[in-house]
Amino acid sequence: MEIKLRKENENDYKSVFQLVEKAFEKEEYSDHKEQFLVEKLRKSEVFIPELSIVAKVENKIVGHILLTKLEIKNDSKTFESLALAPVSVLPEFQGKGVGSKLILYSHKVAKELGYKSIILLGHENYYPRFGYELTNKYGIEMPFDVPAENCMVITLTENGLSGVNGKVVYPAEFFE
Ligand SMILES: CC(C)(COP(=O)(O)OP(=O)(O)OC[C@H]1O[C@@H](n2cnc3c(N)ncnc32)[C@H](O)[C@@H]1OP(=O)(O)O)[C@@H](O)C(=O)NCCC(=O)NCCS
Question: Ligand 1 in contact with 95 (CB < 6 A)?
């Protein structure tokens, strides 16, 4: 199965909406509104077009990933970082490597754009394989009341998190 990745464009919006909806349909922890979150984030200031990426198999969009800007703030400094949310693969294409490809490719593009880290809230068994570590190792605090093992961060460059600590400030769209 050949998986092709590219930047999302306007013609993909409808397919992406439907695929995000389907991907999360049976997820227990989900509020089933991730497809609307994607729509809101696209229109917001934190949107980076290059970091909305689709995966295609035989001309069908089967996966999508979105990384948007966020900040890590402490009393004296503000650091730029990215939020990975959401990543979605059509149920019938899950477990075939699409999610992994999207995640790794998004890291590459983010790094090329000069970003140094990515933050996410996710499954403790899935993301460590890509190099994600717990945020509390770095003194990075999430604004949600969630288990520590689900709060993760990756550095895209050597020492990308050196001196970085504080509270993560997610874009307002995540709370609307
Ligand atoms: C999570 C998701 C993006 C992974 O994409 P994928 O294409 O299925 O994943 P891959 O094929 O690259 O990787 C498969 C591996 O991920 C694991 N995996 C998939 N979904 C998982 C989940 N929800 N929790 C833990 N591990 C998961 C599989 O067990 C498999 O592990 P293995 O390699 O040890 O067998 C996809 O399953 C999905 O869309 N899920 C529903 C939406 C969701 O939960 N998104 C993530 C939260 S933002």
Answer: yes
17 alpha-carbon distance from chain centroid: 16
CA separation (Å) from 123 to 89, 138, 170?
Answer: 15, 19, 19
DSSP reduced 3-state for 45:
coil
Is residue 7 predicted with pLDDT exceeding 90? yes
The Cα 152–Cα 113 span in angstroms is 21
Does residue 65's CB lie within 6 angstroms of at least one atom of ligand 1? Answer: no
Give me Rg for the CA atoms of the chain.
15
Q: Is the CB of 100 under 6 A from ligand 1?
A: yes
Binding site membership of 25 for ligand 1 (Cβ less than 6 Å): no
**pLDDT for position 176:** 83
Cβ–Cβ contacts within 10 Å for residue 91, how many? 14
User: What span, in angstroms and rounded, lies between the C-alpha atoms of 11 and 139?
Assistant: 41
Average pLDDT over residues 150-171: 95
Contact 168, 119 (CB under 8 A): yes
